[in-house]
Design goal:
The structure holds two protein chains of two kinds. Chain A is α/β, with parallel strands linked by helices. Chain A has helices at residues 43-51, 75-81, 98-112, 120-134, 151-165, 181-194, 233-250, 253-256; strands at residues 4-13, 17-27, 32-36, 56-65, 68-69, 83-86, 93-97, 144-145, 169-173, 200-205, 218-223, 226-231. Chain B contains eight helices and 20 strands. Classes of the chains: A alpha/beta, B alpha/beta.
């Protein structure tokens, strides 16, 4: 059964500028989909709309998650339903303790799902379990959310939060940007440890590099607001070799129309 | 003549300097609306109200009010000393903690005669009223080189009474050379009341001394408080201060600090909460007189409902105060269309080679941070509460080093925010 079903999605930003122009995508549990494309193609917009960020207007099409209308839900309801967006630019929130925040978020989700909330001991146990996988310094947990974190630490903190929240669908928005090769590997290890038959990933990236470490099942090329090419991992390699210009020449007529 | 002044003067029987102070206060009256320093805080409503002098002795105070405030502590209720609730245990040698009334009645009243001491702008109306009418307050003196480990708590409780009362308090905190101490002022409500408190605190920090000073103003939502703190910092002294303005209907605080000795340092932060119809006004007058002095000032304000937060950050760097470093930041959250925030940083520089910066902002909660929290599953009200709490906690970080004390103060802030439905 399809977990995420996006049909002919059109969206504008700032009231008029159309960013998505008829995007369709099906994601099933256990699958890893890579979304590649040039800057300005609408990659981040896609992630933001699925997660529920304000500022976008969906003018046509629909997004279903486990059969329900995702666009009708508030961001926190989407999170409780199992959607997670790892931010391209994780937000620094001084004064909000990282651990306190994460426990509140997890318990809010559990409460929304009618599950038992975790007490601090249970939560600590969960945190210890997840920390090991990510090589994240546990001192960072006692700081403000992302406060004073390096670029790599912020991205690893996103993956750590994902590990604790255990979403059904994880969207990684350019998680590789600004990472050196070691940090990239650690992030990829974290993601790979979370792969499971029940969980799907949408990996948004500009470069093929991340996909060497997180092997996708499908690669989609997003250009000018719609998916213009889909294929297996070999598509990413072709893009890497020929660049996005190559794609422009290959655009199928109906995609251009 | 204003009802206010008439009521305050009734029954006055003082002589000499006190009488002269009262007469000049009555003659000159309250500040006019055009007076620059009162431009954003109108006294017109207060002017029409009458207050009776707080009676002696006051009614019994519920001990539960001070149950979580450890010794050593001095407790005052409606401006009157409460010996029963005060507890002076835990003070080391070299520390004198007593009331102004005790000091004035002591062997050498001149030593404590702060009522007659000269200080800047002593001719302002509330200062004059205080000079005429103040008859009690807290006195803390720490001898040379003495380090006081336990925080000294000064507790001021406003209690409901028949009619509206007025009290006038004068406090003195004096640290001699190389001494160090922590003072925490609590201004609490023992019930709903609409009294008027007029307090002046003189703070003297001698060379190489360190004073940590927190003031938590959490008075009744109908109370009026006019407070002035005048501090003088000597060479290489350090004054770290936190002001939390959480309660009151009208609370005006002037914090005047003279950095008179070279390399003296002031780190002062504060929080202004203005909800409902509350009016909170903080006015800083920081005066860099000696060279290589430093100040770092960070105030945060939050206004909701029809509340109004007024912040004036005045810094003067005098001629010859070269090498001064002055930093002022005032950030505000405006949470409703009917609330108002007036912020005014004023930097006057007459010296060379100074580093000075000031910034003031008024805004709403960061949308990006809101979305971040919600995308992780936090419902909007909780996300909002978390961000507002974080916003006002920030000033505590750099001035309250003790984790235990910081937690207690954070809890006070959280309670105030929840009580005023600011989140």
């Amino acid at each position: 059964m399809t977990m995420l079903k996006i049909e002919n999605l059109h969206a504008t930003v700032g009231g008029d500028r159309e960013i998505l122009k008829g995007l369709s995508l099906d994601v099933k549990p256990g699958e890893v989909h890579a979304i590649m494309g040039p800057n300005g193609a609408g990659k981040s917009t896609l992630g933001n709309i699925v997660a529920g960020r304000e500022g976008y207007d969906v003018t046509a099409g629909r997004v279903e998650f486990d059969g329900a209308d995702l666009l009708a839900l508030e961001p926190e309801e989407r999170a409780a339903a199992g959607v997670f967006l790892a931010f391209q630019y994780p937000v620094e929130i001084p004064g909000v303790n990282n651990t306190y925040f994460l426990r509140s978020a997890l318990n809010a989700q559990r409460k929304a799902r009618g599950e038992e909330e975790l007490d601090s001991m249970q939560f600590l146990k969960l945190v210890r379990e997840k920390l090991g996988v990510l090589h994240l310094d546990d001192r960072l947990l006692h700081r403000g959310v992302n406060e004073g974190f390096s670029g790599g630490e912020k991205k690893r903190n996103e993956i750590f939060q994902m590990a604790v929240l255990e979403p059904k669908l994880a969207i990684l928005d350019e998680t590789d940007s600004g990472l050196d090769i070691d940090a990239l590997r650690q992030v990829a290890d974290g993601v790979n440890a979370l792969r499971s038959p029940d969980r799907a990933f949408l990996v948004i990236t500009h470069y093929q590099r991340l996909l060497e470490y997180i092997k996708p099942d499908f690669v989609h090329v997003l250009a000018d607001g719609r998916i213009v090419e889909s294929g297996g991992p070999e598509l990413a390699l072709q893009l890497e070799a020929h660049g996005y210009e190559w794609l422009r020449e290959r655009k199928v007529p109906e995609a251009v129309a | 003549m204003a009802t206010l002044l008439e009521s305050l003067a009734s029954g006055f029987s003082g002589e000499g300097a006190r009488r002269a102070a009262l007469e000049s206060a009555l003659r000159d009256g309250l500040p006019h609306a055009r007076t620059e320093s009162w431009k954003y805080t109108s006294l017109r409503q207060l002017e029409r109200r009458a207050f009776s002098p707080a009676p002696l002795p006051h009614a019994g105070v519920d001990a539960a009010l001070v149950a979580d405030i450890p010794a050593p502590r001095l407790v005052f209720a409606n401006g009157r000393f409460d010996a029963g609730l005060s507890d002076l245990s835990g003070l080391p040698d070299g520390v004198r903690l007593l009331t102004m009334a005790q000091a004035l009645a002591g062997d050498d009243p001149r030593e404590y005669n702060v009522l007659g001491r000269s200080y800047e702008r002593a001719d302002e109306v509330f200062a004059r009223l205080n000079a005429a009418l103040a008859d009690d307050g807290a006195v803390l003196r720490v001898a040379e080189g003495v380090a006081v480990a336990a925080p000294v708590h000064l507790v001021f409780i406003g209690l409901p009474a028949e009619g509206d009362l007025a009290w006038h308090s004068r406090h003195l905190i004096e640290l001699r050379r190389g001494a160090s101490a922590t003072v925490i002022e609590h201004h609490l409500a023992g019930g709903d009341h609409a009294h008027l408190g007029n307090a002046i605190a003189h703070v003297h920090v001698a060379a190489n001394a360190t004073l940590r000073h927190a003031r938590v103003q959490d008075e009744s939502a109908r109370a009026t408080l006019v407070t002035r703190t005048d501090a003088v910092l000597a060479r290489e002294s350090s004054y770290r201060r936190l002001d939390l303005e959480l309660g009151g209907a009208l609370s005006r605080h002037e914090l005047n600090v003279r950095l008179e000795g070279e390399r003296a340092e002031l780190v002062a932060n504060g929080v202004l909460l203005a909800s409902g119809r509350r009016h909170v006004d903080t006015r800083l007058g920081i005066d860099h007189i000696a060279r290589d002095t430093r100040c770092e000032l960070g105030w945060r304000g939050m206004a909701a409902g029809r509340g109004r937060a007024v912040f004036h950050g005045g810094i003067q760097i005098r001629e010859g105060a070269d090498g001064t470093d002055a930093q002022l930041s005032n950030k505000n959250l405006l949470l409703s269309d009917t609330a108002e925030i007036d912020t005014q940083p004023v930097l006057v520089i007459h010296a060379d080679e100074v580093t000075a910066a000031h910034g003031a902002t008024v805004g709403q909660l960061d949308d990006n941070a809101m979305f971040y929290l919600r995308s992780r599953g936090m419902p909007e009200p909780e996300a909002r509460a978390m961000l507002t709490a974080a916003f006002v906690r920030e000033p505590l970080v750099s001035v309250v080093e003790t984790p235990d004390l910081r937690e207690r103060l954070e809890a006070r802030l959280d309670r105030a925010i929840a009580a005023q439905a600011l989140a």
